[in-house]
Design goal:
Length: 290
């Protein structure tokens, strides 16, 4: 009897072991199938959960016009001008056209090398509260095309409408320099420098003015004080040579005019380095050079 019981126990144990082995094999097969699904046949459960979590963590879409305009402006500040154009289209489809969207569109068109379309968009601002930005944009387009006389005219209009905008004043000064009008560049550049002494673009234009006016020591002091990079210094020196060439062209143009017109033209157009040694450097330049 004891032997019979022992045999039955062994048989039962063998049966149970076989069942366990079969179950393990089935689980392994299911696991292999699941792995195949995850790798080669679309999104598996883990990837799907991750996608849902990522979607849930995304920032909500702007639900007000102000928020949406802020998003577009942020895109442009990050250099995403093409993307901003797409969102401007979407914004205007939902909320309509406004001077704010015209300005954003104009800036994006200018920065994506579409000057004609940009000029049209800037022109639409000239009879709105954003007219100063419209004139400034037209001035930048003219300057980019090498028309510094036209740029100076447009930027002068912008500066009259926004007299404390340091960047516009600096742009006006630069346009006048590139047009050969060194004397005319002095006042807007000094205004810009005192309004925003830490703007590297304004500082660079001040250094350019000093070089064009013959104040090389002061220009070097400004560049050293502001720790301008060698590339920026080289660009300033290159522009100074262009300013000198424009000044010589202005002088030749004046000499070619009838004598009775020379006095009138000279009253409105400065020449390169004509103020050298006449007055000390403005106080703002002394502060830059400390």
């Amino acid at each position: 009897m004891a032997h019979s019981l022992s045999f039955d126990s062994l048989a039962r144990t063998a049966y149970d072991a076989a069942r366990c082995a079969a179950a393990l094999a089935a689980l392994a097969l299911l696991g292999a199938c699941a792995s195949k699904d995850l790798v080669g046949y679309g999104v598996g459960p883990q990837a799907e959960r991750a996608a849902l979590a990522q979607q849930a963590n995304r920032d909500p879409a702007p639900d007000t016009p102000g928020m949406y305009l802020g998003l577009i402006d942020k895109m442009q500040s990050e250099g995403l001008y093409f993307a901003s154009l797409a969102h401007i289209d979407a914004y205007e489809k939902q909320y309509g056209v406004s001077p704010d969207t015209n300005l954003l569109r104009a800036d994006a068109l200018r920065m994506t090398d579409q000057p004609a379309a940009a000029a049209t968009a800037y022109g639409q601002l000239l009879k709105t509260p954003l007219a100063a930005r419209g004139y400034r944009g037209l001035g930048l387009i003219a300057g980019a095309a090498g028309d510094f006389a036209g740029a100076a005219q447009e930027l002068q209009q912008a500066a009259q409408l926004a007299p404390t905008d340091a960047v516009t004043l600096s742009d006006l000064g630069y346009a006048r320099l590139r047009n050969g009008d060194v004397n005319g560049a002095r006042v807007p550049l000094m205004k810009a420098a005192e309004l925003d002494q830490n703007n590297p673009k304004i500082v660079s234009n001040v250094a350019l003015y000093l070089l064009a006016n013959g104040d090389r020591a002061q220009a070097l002091a400004v560049m050293n004080r502001q720790k301008l990079t060698p590339d920026v210094r080289a660009a300033i020196r290159s522009d100074a040579a262009k300013v000198a060439a424009a000044g010589r062209a202005q002088a030749r143009s004046l000499q070619a005019q009838p004598q009775q017109q020379v006095g009138q033209a000279t009253a409105g157009v400065g020449t390169v380095a004509s103020a050298q040694g006449v007055e000390p450097a403005p106080r703002v330049l002394q502060r830059f050079a400390q």
